[in-house]
Amino acid sequence: MISLIILIVLSGCSLNKNDMTNLEIIKSTYEGKTSEENGQNLAKYVSKDISWTEAKGFPYAGTYIGLENITKNVFNRLGSEWIDYKFTPEDYVASDDKVVAFGTYSGTYKITGKSFTARVAHIWKLKDHKIISFEQFVDSQTVNDAIK
Fold this sequence. Notes:
By secondary structure, the chain is α+β, with helices and mostly antiparallel strands. 36% of the residues lie in helices and 41% in strands. It has a 6-stranded mixed β-sheet. The longest helix is centred in the middle third of the chain and has 15 residues, at 67-81.
């Protein structure tokens, strides 16, 4: 009986099993069933003042603060200017409050009809299970070639 009570008490003291790890949070922004689900997960986990940096030389280069600015300057443009634009993650590296996702971008630019693929890495920083920053590293040349 005492062992059962100890077991019950210890199970109540464990971490909340519903808390996702930082790696799981980031994976949820890429690996949902749909891009809409990925976007919902991103919205769920971003901090109010997230800093989002698109690489210099990339068509949407710049740093945007807050999900509204990110949506306007990055996601809306990706959705309206490209066909099947996507990031396909290859792997992740996680350490404490940082998660790196690396893989490949691909898509077809609507105006030119040109397709591309580009290697990319995303560095995410989190604090208290909220995404506080994103930084993109990408081979922008193939993307820019598709636009020309």
